Amino acid sequence: MLFRPNPSSGVPIYLQLMEQVKHAVETGALRPGEQLPGIRPLAEELVINPNTVAKAYRELEHEGVIELRQGAGAFVAGNAGTKKLMDTIRAGQGIVADAIEKLRARGVTDEEIRRLFEAELAGLNIRGGHRG
Amino acid sequence: MADAGVIDTADLRKTYGDIEAVRGLTLHVPGGSIYGFLGRNGAGKTTTIKVLLGMTHPTAGDVRVFGLPANVSRSSVAIRRRTGFVSEDKDLYDFMTVEEMIRFTAPFFPNWRKDLEERYLRKFELRQAQTIKSLSRGMRTKLALLLALSRGAELLILDEPTSGLDPAMTEEVLQALVSHVASEQMTVFFSSHQIAEVEQIADHVAIVDRGRAVLAGTLDDLRERYRRIQMVFDGDAPQPAFRSPGVVRVRRKGRVVTLLTSAGAEHVVNEARGLHPVSIDVTPVSLKDIFLETVVGED
To answer: I want to staple A56 with a disulfide (CB 3.0 to 4.6 A). Which of A5, A14, A132, B258 is the partner?
Structure first.
């Protein structure tokens, strides 16, 4: 299954679902023009509120990631350019891998590295006013 | 108050002798929501549900369902006609078979939906010839749910629908609810002391404690507003006096200060920086944490 939000993580489920759809598009697991599961089947499959799925789809449409076609369902937007995003992610992976290597060389444990990353991300969220 | 909801109560009170079961409960349940009514055993959930259904009269306060006063018997009959209800005990007649129970119930409801009845008989794998006495707890719950869902109701009120069910059966019941709401226009109001299931399927929640709603809102809003902030200091942590609004609780232990804020985490972090901690961590908070802080924390 592509999507698996965690209801008890404290992060709104619709945001998790949005991230997971975007990730699937970025990695090419979902390609432009491909159909996403309908609101009802997805709500049933994940056993989450259909309103939550609907909200995630609305927001994704608003961001141009998917298109909602009346009566037909949700589709990955034609211009949700996966190539560029994949390049960006690959570049990011390289930077992260470098940083981790350097930290390990200094004797920082993986658990500490994880915490540092999370703390820094949380800090960025606060400064940038990101709603996540 | 916003638009009239499917359920609206204002300062609702119910006392039995000198026991105050409900002590000024205000609720607003919007149409189309799955509303989780979360509280510990004895918090006043069942009493509230009985008041909503006109099964008991409130001592004071206002209670409306579909805009109709639930404490007036004539409108209470109208309310019950439009509402599916599953009690915690799953009241069924033990001597009847599954089929007899369904045939007995259907005529009370003019909007009875034969299509839904058949759908849930199949989905729940209920055997029509089986006597109710011999049903397992899970099958009993499913039959009670079938009877409530097939009424063509606009509102479903469930009192601890999954109590006593194993995790697989719980998931099945939750799935039936989610799927029902997705295909029929309806509102679900369910009481529970299971935080996980409320978190999973509800979009609105009220946390009730000792007969009062200590917190209510959309789950997304709560998840977006609440944050846990942890500061670690070089030496003993100072006794901070946070002035930022929204700070729910501050705990200090050794070199660590942990606080929970219900809003404006960025202001709290700014204030925290002024104390020069070695590190500040900001993390999202689960409904369980919020529940434990707002309910148990009051003792």
So the answer is: A14
